[in-house]
């Protein structure tokens, strides 16, 4: 039995309580300042209002953020359960109070672009934010897994990544279950880059859905065009993985994660609306309240690639889909002008 | 204007008449002995009964098989439009009568396993069947494209492959259109292997659909499990591409083609029925009349991999999904026993 302190009571972090508790562990669920009502609900009736599921009846203790120190006392592992919008809060408020011997497992997916165009992962970002002389083992979860289906115990195949394989094996032992299958990798950059990119590209693939169903939403979905964009996405993600120095085998994660995001994720909704011809402002308005990480990630990735192109490290023409998505989001381009012919290649 | 003689009036071959005729070419559609009623229908009312579309009103001439020599007279290109079940008929009856100066473009996807476990493409197979001293330029089409959507002029991104880039460029000029986008590759083995494999793996991914909706078909689809199988498929296809010596970039085609086959193809129906718990015999019975190439390809690929494993060239444990699919089809295994934990890996 281990004590797992989860900081951030969002959907995915909370869904992890199912395999954790089934394995005989104790979960301490700590809300961020934005999670007060979630914690109140779980505490009183056991119901998670955004995950829309009853959490396990036993094995969970709930804490508001003021009680975070108590929740960390004697903890064996800390889960960083914030979205990409909460990472700075986590870095400033939580990292300093986690004891050095407690490993962190982060569910936040994404990359951050630096000014020179290089992109770093959240584990790298967290490491850069540690107080002087402080060391923490920062690990992360990647791979195709939506929180609802994890809570419903549907089979999921994910990857835990970090620098120390022994710590990864320990973390795996806490969560591995008959429905939650975990690969391990010390290629943190490869895994995190692979899973971050799929958000941007899921938006790109979903454009074809919106284009097919049309502004009134009454048309039929077509799959040739989705598959064309899916293939182009894999091509560009493969190239981006090379650029950041991630192992080529991580394209397996990218492809699986792209698949689940196009079908089960929120990004699909953004891309579909844009494909239907709504502006980015109108699309965001229609999705009020929905986390829009894909927009942030697409913008960041494109900014990174543009900066690298300026330095001559990459050719912008190798990323026509990413640039098109970025132009829709940030420069008023219309979805229908997908640069199809630039996806063509000649291999001699 | 070129004359394109299409032999085999199946759905995909017939759908190609749309971009071909839009580019100002003439199409001569020749039915195989199995296509008599198709040819009669197109000839009299212009309607293709299995594609379920009106073919272009002008530019198509129809021929029954007895008129094949007339249809070949003055032709610039021959399309081989038979399914994998028709390749031997095509090799025996048509290859010998095609003049050497006319290039062939084949739409048949698939690989054939030889006794030693090595797999060859249909272009290679056709070349091996040519009469002594006869030479033909045999090219092929790969990539994600369903015939219905091509006929509806939805955007599709495909690849033409062959040994001679100049011939490929000429072929591209006949079919390239605002909705039919064509990459070219001289890596015939890579392209053909990539697109053949996806049939077997689309069956594997679809198992998760059947498992989720259940025997009565009333359950909801889950995407985590589909994505887990999709990622594993990409992993195994990538490895198989290495084995046959195909370029690694062809995984882009495999992934895109896998995507469209899971969503728009017939293979989905087979995998779903098997996933629902029906035996292979019962599943085939329920799909009466539907081409079941995926079953043939999965069986062949697995047979090839098993032969290679016997020779020590590969490890069978690297292909747990393919072997599971093969065991369901050929050894009475049940779909529910998906070897999830064997998909896990450790990368240090």
From TrEMBL, chains A, B:
GO terms for biological process: carbohydrate metabolic process; glycerol-3-phosphate catabolic process; phospholipid biosynthetic process. Residues 4-158 form the Glycerol-3-phosphate dehydrogenase NAD-dependent N-terminal domain. It is an enzyme of class 1 (oxidoreductase). It holds the Pfam family NAD_Gly3P_dh_N. Keywords: Lipid biosynthesis, Lipid metabolism, NAD, NADP, Oxidoreductase, Phospholipid biosynthesis, Phospholipid metabolism. NAD(+) binds at residue 266. It catalyses: sn-glycerol 3-phosphate + NADP(+) = dihydroxyacetone phosphate + NADPH + H(+). SUPFAM superfamilies: 6-phosphogluconate dehydrogenase C-terminal domain-like (SSF48179), NAD(P)-binding Rossmann-fold domains (SSF51735). Its EC number is 1.1.1.94. Residues 187-335 form the Glycerol-3-phosphate dehydrogenase NAD-dependent C-terminal domain. The keyword Lipid metabolism applies. GO terms for cellular component: cytosol. GO terms for molecular function: glycerol-3-phosphate dehydrogenase (NADP+) activity; NAD binding. The active site is at 198 (proton acceptor). InterPro entries: 6-PGluconate_DH-like_C_sf, 6PGD_dom2, G3P_DH_NAD-dep, G3P_DH_NAD-dep_C, G3P_DH_NAD-dep_N, NAD(P)-bd_dom_sf. Gene3D superfamilies: N-(1-d-carboxylethyl)-l-norvaline Dehydrogenase, domain 2, NAD(P)-binding Rossmann-like Domain. Belongs to the NAD-dependent glycerol-3-phosphate dehydrogenase family. PANTHER family: GLYCEROL-3-PHOSPHATE DEHYDROGENASE, GLYCEROL-3-PHOSPHATE DEHYDROGENASE [NAD(+)] 2, CHLOROPLASTIC. This is Glycerol-3-phosphate dehydrogenase. It comes from Clostridium estertheticum subsp. estertheticum. The lineage of its organism: Bacteria, Bacillati, Bacillota, Clostridia, Eubacteriales.
